Amino acid sequence: MYCFNCMQEAEARGVCPHCHKQNVPDRIPHHLPPGTILNGKYVVGNSLGEGGFGITYVGLDKQLQMRVAIKEYYPLGNANRNNSQSNNVYTSTQSQTDQYDKGKERFMREAQSVAQFSGAQGVVNVKNYFEENNTAYIIMEYLEGENLLQHINRHGNFAADKLFRLMLPMMKSLREIHNKGVIHRDISPDNIIIHNDTLTLTDFGSARYYSNQSNEMSVMLKQGYAPEEQYRSTGNQGTWTDVYGLCATIYKCITGVTPQNGLDRAHVDQLKLPSELGADISKPLEAVLMYGMAVYHNDRCRDMNELMEMTQNALNNLDPNVPLVHAAIDTDRTVSANDIDWNAQKQVGNVDNRRIPPADLRQQQQQLRQEQQGQRREPEQQSKAPVIAAVSIAAVAVVLAIVVLILMLNKNGDSNTDSTTAAESTAVATHDASVSAVIPDLVGKTYKEATALLDKQELDYETKKETTDDPEKDNKVLVQDPKAGETGSKVTITVGSYEQPVTEPPTDAPTTAAPTILYCRADEYANLRTSPSSSSTSIARIPSRGAVELLDSSGDFYYVTYNGKTGYVWKVVFSEDRNAPLYTDEKETAPVAPSANIMYCCADEYANLRVSPSSDSTSIAEIPSRAAVEVLGTSGEFYHVRYNGKTGYVWYRVFSKDRYAALYTGD
Q1: C or N terminus of the chain, fewer CB within 10 Å?
Q2: pLDDT for 180-214, tens place per residue?
Q3: Using CA atoms, how far apart are residues 327 and 343, in angstroms rounded to an integer?
């Protein structure tokens, strides 16, 4: 008997002596039942996770007695399975069947392509791929360790230079994959496993061939790690798309902050520099990182080869023996037919003012290199200009001293009340100058920038906090004493601390009407779209019976807010009656059982959706207070639920059939 969690020998329903988890098989209706045999030799265990393209299970190769990971093609919204009847996957409409078959064909073709790189450092090893149960499977090596997201949550953020060095082998392997015309499109912290300071990229389920740029690509992405071109099915995706994903992953792992999503950055770019968030990063590496995260692809580092070269330059601190970075856009450079016509594709409009264009980056590196060369020059080879300047300054100082001495002597002769001699005055002035310095301008600088300047000039400083209602002044110097340009030995800086202003309505203000709540009556989910058009981009999926707040109407669409996002939904699939009949027209979703068991989150902030029925298991999503979920089953003290297209487990105490049940405020 195998443990369905780690695939090592263990007793049924007991605690596994290896992974220390309860050996209980998952009972998820659309998953393969644990214990299923695939291709005659692969035993399926419990699921490790589920995404937009498929389900990943832990498994065992019976012949080799080796643990493996099994990726099953199961595209969300286009596939169905009821494992109590059959393991076969099926579709409900002809349009779903057409999309499903095309996707499965791509899944197998791309598995074959990625399998070419098995054994490459930094890329998961593909062992086998085949079709069964009217779907397709990829058998991959099982990777020990944890993903980068889990790692930083457990151990804290990386130092930038360490993480860039760990990423170099992966960049090299991605360069080879790109040369075959395949891009990953889903590089993110949860798709990179770290074990013994080695990084391995997994989950090529979103990978696509990009050599034919006229073909549309599906819009599947992770918020924060996808550039703006990936939000459009006709967006110009290529090697630069993976560059963005890799750099956004580094940004998250050195700051702990998920980057602003690419679509929002295309409108108003508010992405902060890592150094402003306290990241441990050098200026050259920060320049490389922000160049790799430029909003528009034609402003961005174009491929892994260029990213590797710039990274190595920055890690070597611009050693003179390291070649300079070449500019990314060079009209004299020969490029392949698959590359972009940079002049034709040049975007006009919003400009990412935080990026450092290649030409400026090269100039910055040249300047720093010249400074380093000057510091290494032997004394006899150094320029005589500093010596001449020093002699000139000394001569001026002597003249000024004589003038001051004459004035002081004259003043002493005119007044008997001043007993200080000119020599004594000169001595006092000299002593003050030795402990004082000209105070730099600190107002408007971040706390880290200000203290770095003060430390550089060996000035003592004291810090005070002052609350501000302006978010732009958060962690920035508001006031300094002494002021810039004055002299002194100690500086007091007042740093802003932003607090969200709380506005209370006047006591005589009219009572605000309760918001209008609408409920989704789609049989599976409804799309929250960016504009009132069925062809516009979907920014979220609202599950059946999920609640939204009505903001306005627009033709055939409602303008609503859902989980903090605002957008448009089709009117016909929403109703003020939570128990209204489900809408089963194929325009919106595939049909499911109409008797969905809907429950509502009554946690005071949010509840965690976990991969297994244990409070120690990984969280895959946060379910906000009052949000709706579909209950699929129970497991001990946990409900098995579906939320926003993801399935997992939630603690039963923080869910209720009553949407307005009292909030649970326990630990």
Answers
A1: C
A2: 778 888 899 988 999 888 898 887 655 554 433 33
A3: 15
What is the CATH code of the structural domain delimited by 438-498? 3.30.10.20
Confidence of residue 664 (pLDDT cuts 50, 70, 90): confident
Residue 539 parent element (H or E) = strand 538-543
User: Which spans in 576-638 are helix H?
Assistant: none
For residue 462, give both structure tokens.
């004291």
Spatial contact of 60 and 52, defined as CB atoms under 8 Å apart: no
Residue 259 to residue 274: CA distance in whole angstroms: 10
Helix axes 283-292, 239-255, angle to 10 degrees: 130
Q: Which pair of tokens denotes residue 342? A: 């940079």
**For residue 23, what are the β-bridge partners?**
none
Which residue matches tokens 């040049």? 346
Domain ranges of the chain: 37-141, 146-330+353-373, 438-498, 517-656
Residue 566: phi and psi, rounded to 5, are: -115, 145
- Cβ 30 vs Cβ 81: under 8 Å: yes
Cα 107 to Cα 30: distance, rounded to the nearest angstrom: 19
Domain spanning 517-656: CATH superfamily: SH3 Domains (2.30.30.40)
Number of residues that this document lists for the chain: 667
Residue 291: enclosing H or E segment and its boundaries? helix 283-292
Tell me the C-alpha distance between 633 and 29, whole Å.
9
261/269 Cα distance (integer angstroms): 9
**CATH node for 37-141:** 3.30.200.20
**According to DSSP H, which parts of 415-544 are helical?**
422-435, 447-456
pLDDT in tens, 560-582: 888 778 888 888 888 888 878 88
Give 146-330+353-373's CATH code, choosing from 1.20.1250.20, 1.10.10.10, 1.10.510.10, 1.10.1660.10: 1.10.510.10
- Using an 8 Å Cβ cutoff, are 361 and 283 in contact? no
How many CB atoms neighbour CB 360 within 10 A? 13
How far apart are alpha carbons 423 and 409 in whole angstroms? 10
